[in-house]
Amino acid sequence: MRILFTAFPATAHVHPLVPLAWALQNAGHEVRVAIHPDTVHLVTEAGLPAVPLGSSETLAGAAKWNDNFEMLSQLSDALFLDTDDAPQWERQWQGLCGMLGSFTPMVDDLVEFCRGWQPDLVVWDPFCVAAGVAARVTGAAHARFLWGQDNIGWLRAKSLEAGAGRDGAQDPVDALMAPMLERYGLEYSEDLLLGQFTIDPMPQALRLPLDVEYVPIRRVSYNGNTVAPAWVHRRPEKPRVLLTLGMGGRGRQLFDAAGVSFPRVVDALAELDIEVVATLHKAMLDTVTSVPDNVRLTEYVPLAQVLPSCSAVIHHGGGGTFAAAAAAAVPQLVVPMPMWGESITARFVADRGAGVVVGTEEFDTALLSKQITRLLTEPEFRAGARELRAEINQAPGPAEFVPVLERLTARHRS
User: Fold this and answer.
1) Which of 57, 135, 305, 335 could in theory staple to 140 by disulfide, Cβ–Cβ 3.0 to 4.6 A?
2) Band of pLDDT at residue 70, cut at 50, 70 and 90
3) Which CATH superfamily is domain 230-392 in?
């Protein structure tokens, strides 16, 4: 088969795709990854063939978030969704549909490439709705690949339940899809927004109850290619605790949101009988003027390499960090920074007994030290982390998923 992946131009969106793309290549299939020209390096660094498509300024702006630490203050929780309490869902849906429209200029490039290369399957980021249109035009099967909870699916279902498009009510999906469909003479159908099926790497217990065909896959951590320092592979003399706030996004706003400086957090953790590893942006690391002997400050270490040697991890609730910690059976202290579904993920960790949740409003150095001590000394958390790993491992890994994908492609390809 020929499989085209399309990715939003951000590290956190590309990395989850990589293990499946590898598995498909290893099984003899041809793979390409379409992405904005400014971020092709995210694909090629993973050893995958990139196809630079789409040159819109909107997507170029999105690509800048990967490395621009100074832009973090502009991020908000506008896309965060807690399905148990969503009073602003209509406004969120309007805004999300407007954001999805940023991919409209990419549709012609995608159609042209698909007409030439003739993929059998297009696997697309939930933000890249233009890919479903290109697949429909060229007869390819197509599927979404989630990287977090299905906010788009939930908000769409809520919108339809509220009567979108009926009795003169305005449906924001019309404005989103019409510019892409009219030029190719297509009529709208729900699969163009939600895929013919959806590949879901999240634990089944986190899946929202929607009328969508979800196909589970185990999320295997890929965090980039780099040479890890030698200490990563040595057994630490003291319990190793990792502090990480993701590759970008709102996680790195944690200290400002909590009103506690990073140097104070370092000093508090250093007082415990542990080894502290903080992997953060250089601008944040440079605020520490005196580094205690039991603290390592480093810009980047792939989570999949460092977590197996850790006894606990502190993070912001991001899907990639959660998945990597769960795969390594490491107890988690989650301080959720809402951007997509972090609070729900944090509650899931706590409900499974695999960690604790600390809200930003209560976050301080005393509580942080207390909760880390609990994670390290109370065996129930390590047992809960092992049970969480076993639960996640019930889903097929990328290699096992390949024949599933082959069957689904044959069913949906026209």
Assistant:
1) 135
2) low
3) Glycogen Phosphorylase B; (3.40.50.2000)
